[in-house]
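Job type: complex structure
Entries:
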Amino acid sequence: MRTGNRRTRGLLSGTVVALLLSTAAWADPASDTKQMRDFFKARFPTVALEDYANGLYALPGFEEFRDQWLAFRDLAPYEIGLANGKKLWETPFRNGKTFSSCFKNGGRNIAQGYPYWDKPAKKVRTVEMDLIDCATRNGSELSFVNANLDRDQKARAQLAELSAYLYSLARGKPLKPDVDFTDRDALKAYEQGKKFWWARRGQWNFSCASCHVNLAGATLAGSQPLSAGVGHGVAWPAQRTEWTRLETLHYRYAACLSQMRARPQAHGSEDLNNLELYEKIMSIGLPLQAPAMRN
Amino acid sequence: MSEQRTRIRTKTTDDGATEIFVLISHPMETGLRVNPQTKEKIPVHIVQKITFYLNSKEVAVADTGTGVSANPLVSVRVKNAKKGDKIRVTWTDNFGQKDEQDIVLGDGA
């Protein structure tokens, strides 16, 4: 009898905990953002919120990296990629239309609204998805249309250059992902991205937060300076000095994941789209910097 | 070659010298890489010489090799350059490709 009672009590408290968890799971993106920012405000009191758009170069202790980065202001190596992107953007498809025909306002000042929520499809949409769809709809034979973007570096770099040009048309605009969180499915996608960010994975049992919250401002394995969790995504597509070419945000995620000894998710997969949504909600309101140089 | 392969910027440094930056769009293949699909070696393709001229007078030469990254960014400092001076940068690679670019030093440059 007694054991039975205890078991029922255990079950009951179990359901209470489950209920609490399920309500806690529906967190509010705005309060998540505030919590994250308050954390970094306490951690790095000298860094202004706007500075986080400069990624790791905003953090104290990275002055040498910052000096190197500022030296690129005069002539940034990504200019080659950006010029290629501009050329691609302006080259008409066989039907005479160009990429600007697929975007509102001809692509000007719209990139800050990405990623947006596609309500009928219940999916997060990124700039890269829209570019690929636009090329497909217009019968383009550009290499990234059917390529495996994880394997095919040339195709991915081409997509990155094109996407960098679209982002550059909205440079300086405050990031404002066009997602309506009263839609339960959108909130769910955000939750999944949040879970991805905080979940541990890989051989090192690291999460994104291990580096970008706990170790922010330090270097990983002596070579990779680590940025704070606020300000991610505003500068991508970017060129890392070791890459010598522009690359997409999702390729950076894949590089991050392999740096933490985890198997990367596919380029453009739902996991990474949701992660992009979560990261950009954390960076909401920060000015777009893409394309940029990064370490 | 219709696309622009050489870009030049200049900046006046604190000590009054002029810094010339050059960015070259070039693959800089070392000849050590192998094409993973065909298993064929990718031939050496490197910029071998970058020359800087100030008013048609050679002021700096860089002999570059396989240790230089793809799309190299090179800069040199010149003294006594003033507004209106012409700067020319030329380069050649081992395939015989070459490019040159001229700029005139402006006010803010």
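Summary: Residues 1-24 of chain A have pLDDT under 50 and may be disordered. The longest helix of chain A spans residues 2-25.
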